[in-house]
Amino acid sequence: MRKTQWGVLAVATAAALVLTGCTAPAGDGGQDEDVTLTYWDFIDPSQDNARSVALKENIEAFETANPNIDVQLEVVSYGDMISRLPQAAAAGQVPDVVKMYTPLVAQVAAAGVYQPLPEAATQIDDWLRPIDQLVDAEGNQVAVPYEYRTCALFYNQKILDELGVAVPTTWDELVDAAAKASAAGYVGFGSGFSDVDNSAIISELFDCFMAELDQPIVDKDGKAAFATAKAEEYSQFLADLRDAGAYSSSVVADQYSTVTDGLSNGTVAFGVLGTHRVVTIQSVNPDVQWTNLPAASDGSQTGATFGFTFGIGSSSTHAEAAWKFIEYMTGPEAQARMATGGEVPVRAASYDEDYFSTPEAETVLAIRDYVENYSTPNTYAANWLKIATGLASAGQQLVLNDISASEYLQVAQDAANG
User: How high is the mean pLDDT of the chain?
Assistant: First the structure.
């Protein structure tokens, strides 16, 4: 078996990759032709964690089953992907296989990153959630799901027991509980207003809260249009946490990893994160539990379904081989391996694999049920990253300049449309 090539691509070398080219030699990717597929992923398969090990094993299994196809994986940070993929598209040098966060599919599609998926993609009919939002402006299917996640409330049961606090079931109850935890010396609610990691933690909370409120994020022309009276329930929650002293002193600079680490080390009482973090956090700190999002004022607890997707790069000359790899990675065998890291498989057929009959799969099955019952896919506009950045910058003003809940929404909306 050929050895898969693992490459680590930092910011400095990412630009060089775009300039020197990253596409494979021309060819149709047929069974008898040797093909090298280029593929960017932010997960480093050389690391010793469940997600990395699963990715390494899946690529090796694919190469064994397809001896004419080599997968050349370049480890590229998620933030670098967002900035480098449009440059690669402009240069005609997009990787053969594109991995992308669901809310940003429309944005990278508008930048010319994808080519339409082959007809074979439309023949898969057992996706757990609808995929009709993963299209370009012309309605062509350009991506398929790789894993599902949604927002959940994480909490440290040991801290709650110490304080005699019940698990909150509404956002107002969460503010009260976070305030008590903060008064006891913990970070009451873990969040962050940094835009370093594409504002991931605050934009996910916003995405799920807007889904609960049934509040559209953009109008028919794709402009941000969420500064409404209905949406103030979300921004008032943020302002109430500020007024209760429930944030960390560094919240304006905190990122997704900051909150994950705080929950893991027992310094954070509550946080709203993606369900893909359940297994990794609990493996470090079993005191951390998870549950449904707190209910909005109308009783809704239905957040947004998101995750990562796969597509074929616009400049790929190996579309057949690229699709074969994507089909394998979203198929039952590979998805069962992926699930060992806590990510939710996207196709019903995956759950017939033996792994899902073992006790080790119970958590992933619980997350799957939660995703199916308490989240729904959204259609995202091509300006999602600007929306996310606007939410982060407005959050900084919320904390540093003491702006109101309604001002927060307007500042964020203006930044998204600016």
Answer: 92
